[in-house]
Amino acid sequence: MTTTHPPPTGARKAVSYFFTLLGILSGAWAARTPAVKHTLDLGYGQLSYGLLAIGLGTVLLAGQIPIAIAGFTLFGLGLAPILPQVFSAAGNHDPARAGQAIAQVATVGYAGLVAGPAVIGAATELVGLPAALGIPALLAAFMAASAGALRPQKPT
Questions:
Q1: Residue 142 sits in which domain range?
Q2: Is residue 54 part of a domain?
Q3: Rg (Cα) of the chain, in Å, rounded?
Q4: How many domains, the chain?
Q5: Which residues of 70-96 are buried (b: 16+ CB within 10 A; e: fewer)?
Q6: Do the domain assignments include residue 5?
């Protein structure tokens, strides 16, 4: 006799919150690793976006589950610290208008959050899921190349 149990929603939320916090803490640590940044001559944003692009690219090209899991790990380490870095860069750009700058960045971020899945879904219908997921991988590579804007400005 098989019994069904209601889904453990509280436990799922707890696990989700735990791994989100773990990702933010470990991602912030990985993105600020001085040896890696110094050796590669990268800023905080460049390292994060680089991990994001490499991780998602690895997932897309992986033919085996362990490799895909490693790719998702890199993806998470790159993704977790991006939001605080972007908000900090926006707020530091013009401290007199920090709130307005952060609001503009948040608006663009939410627009991407809403439009992104629709764009990926439409692209999936045309070219298939792996190729459609190449869109965020390419965007992450572009952001890695242009992430110098996230470097703290030197006082003049």
A1: 16-150
A2: yes
A3: 18
A4: 1
A5: ebbbbbbbbbbbbeebbbbbbbeeeee
A6: no
Closest CA to 52 of 156, 155, 154, 133: 133
**Pairwise CA distance, residues 43 & 35, whole Å:** 12
Sorted by sequence, the CB contacts under 8 Å of residue 126 that are 6+ apart come out as 132
In a domain, 77, yes or no: yes
pTM of the model: 0.60
Spatial separation of the C-alpha atoms in residues 29 and 44, rounded to whole Å: 10
From the list 33, 13, 23, the residue with the least C-alpha distance to 82 is: 23
pLDDT in tens, the chain (156 residues): 566 666 667 777 777 777 777 766 666 665 556 666 677 777 667 777 788 888 888 888 887 888 888 888 888 777 777 777 788 888 888 889 999 999 998 998 889 889 988 999 999 999 988 888 888 888 878 877 777 766 666 666
